[in-house]
Amino acid sequence: xxxxxxxxxxxxxxxxxxxxxxxxxxxxxxxxxxxxxxxxxxxxxxxxxxxxxxxxxxxxxxxxxxxxxxxxxxxxxxxxxxxxxxxxxxxxxxxxxxxxxxxxxxxxxxxxxxxxxxxxxxxxxxxxxxxxxxxxxxxxxxxxxxxxxxxxxxxxxxxxxxxxxxxxxxxxxxxxxxxxxxxxxxxxxxxxxxxxxxxxxxxxxxxxxxxxxxxxxxxxxxxxxxxxxx
Length: 230
Hints:
With 230 residues, this protein is of the alpha+beta class. The chain has five helices and eight strands.
C-alpha cells in the first residue's frame, strides 16, 4: 500500500463543508421568510379614542353602536351638568345638541347642586332597535337609541329619624334620537323617561300588577350592550 493512499484530505473537505453550511443557512432563511409571509397578521379591533371637549366625551364612531355609546355618555354628562357654571353648562349643551335641538336637551340637564344634595344618573344598558350595530351611518342619518337608566337622589344632611331621609330613585327606560353630523353624534330628541318598576322575587311588580317583561326582553337581546364596550 503506497503512502499516497494515506494522504490527508482535510484541505479538500473544508471548502465542501463551508459550502454545505452556506446552503443550509440560506435554506433556513428561506423557510423563516416563507413562514412569516404565510402567517396571518393578528387582527386588532380598532376602538375609538375617547376625547373630551368642554367636559363632553367625543370621538364615538359613526355606527349605531357608536351612537348608543354617545347617547349614554351625553345622558350622564348632562345629568351631572346642573352644578356647573352657566357658561360651562351651555357649552356642554352646544356640543351635544343638534342645530335647533337645544330645547330637547334641556330636560336631561340635572338639577343645580347646593352642596347638600346627591344626584347620580347611570346608564346601565343601551340598545338600538332594528339597527345593524356596526354599519357605517351616512351623513345626517338619525338613529333611535334606548337606555336603561338608574337615578338616585337625596340629601346628605337629613336626620336618620326623618322619614324622608335617605336616597330615592329608580330605574327608567330613556329613549333618545341621535344624528351623525360632521363627524360627530348629536342629540336630536329625548322622550320622557318611562319608569320600570323592579320585580320582586315572585316576579310581580311592587305595586301588585303583572310583571312587565318587555324591558327584560330588550335588555337580554343581542342588540343590547353595556355602554363603552365593543
